[in-house]
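Changelog-adjacent note: as of this version, every example in the card shows the full chain rather than a window. The one below runs 517 residues end to end.
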Amino acid sequence: MTDYRAMIRAMRAKARAACARFAPRITDWKGKIRRTAGSVERAFSGPRAKRLLAAGCAAILLIGGIVYGQAYVKANTVTYFELYRDGELIGTVESKEAVEAFLNAKREELEAANPGVTMELKTGELTYVERSGYKAQPETEAALAMLEGLLDSHAVGVEVRVNGKLIAVVPDEKTARQVLEQIKSEFGGDPADDAAVRPPAVQALAHDTGAEASAQAPKTEVESVRIVEQVDMRRIPIDPGRISDGETLYQRLVEGTTKKRTYVVQKGDCIVCIASKFDISPEVIYKNNPWIEDDLIRVGDELDLTVLQPFVTVETVELVSEIEEIEPEVIVRKDDEMRAGLQKTIQAGVPGSKRVTYRLVKHNGWLMSEEIVDEQVLEPAVPEIVVKGTKVIRGVGTGKFAWPVTGAKITSKFGKRWGRQHKGIDIVGNRSILAADNGVVTFAGRKNGLGNAIIINHQNGYQTVYGHLSKINVKKGQVVEKGEKIGVMGSTGNSTGTHLHFEIHKNGTPKNPLNYL
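Full-length structure tokens:
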């Protein structure tokens, strides 16, 4: 504490010493100020000084007046615009905004007078030149009145063309696009919403471990939706009476025209071939010609191929995923002590299941093509193990079938096609027809639908059928050997061309021949 107080006393002493050193200088400065003030007082006390003072005051007043005048003029200077239309002076206006407000009001008047129609106001090219003047008075009303007399207007619409063909003119592009989107959504939306335009889904079986297979609904995902044709839209001037609404455009695009067409079946034709030739779905042929059964059509038959031809084709690509059954593999073991044609199952097969994904391409709801894009096995099938006899006895089948035609080519497969059941397969190739296995002829003659036909009983639960023959080389009761010629390929019965219709029956039930050949 003592040191602190000593420090304070030392600092005060230094301050007093400094003041003592500056005291003479401060006194000297005070004297100079007094002498200067006296000199100024003596200078302005004479006549000359008074004249100088008056002149200075006058100069100050003059400068102030000039500054005030300039400020006044500036405060009363008005900025305005010269308005030109297509390069010609119309008049003067107070602002560009006044002109725009005037034009907007005119546009609103046009719309109110023409509801539901897009009106276009033709103003010409308007330009402005900025001007200014002292207390200038732009004649805005006169200029706008002059401009009003030069304005013109007309209705505009948007024409819609499909592949260059004019369909309709609608009020605006928004209306046209809404209609197109509506059409696309009707074919490409939720499958539950448009079941009417979709063929019924194929029901598949799912295998569950330890339980019977149960039906499962397919899952559908829309991959893409597009309009195939080129659709163009363009604004055009038009008479308001020629403008159509969105509903009219929709009807014209979707309904299009009905194309009446008939076709007479020619030699070599088939349902799928005709559909491909006329670029239509086979479903159209079946729908228009309900008399067709088992895909059988004959030369000379007249088919109704009439279709509705919309101006736009909505192509949808769908991915359909469904559970399908896997048929068990059949493993055959031979027994030369067992008579040929006899067999014994030593292990029953158990079906499996798989998820199959198809890509379906449809045009306006009609199925045009399908392909498998993915398969996933969910439950493997358990194979069936069968012991078959190989001991040959005349007239008794071996149970192993040979192709009834050499150089065979399949033209139609077994099963449902476009909603119809085909009980066998159609084959073309060498025209000699051969017995598919040993057996006894139980029928040789003309059969409804099949024309000239042969049925062979293989005396082991199997029968084979041979149809549309031009010639029969065997008779009822005759014993035939596998590979023996029994007839000649032809086109008798309900046939559209030379081919063999071939069936395999097991215990009276038609089977897919491709599983046995």
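Structural remarks: The first helix runs from residue 2 to 43.
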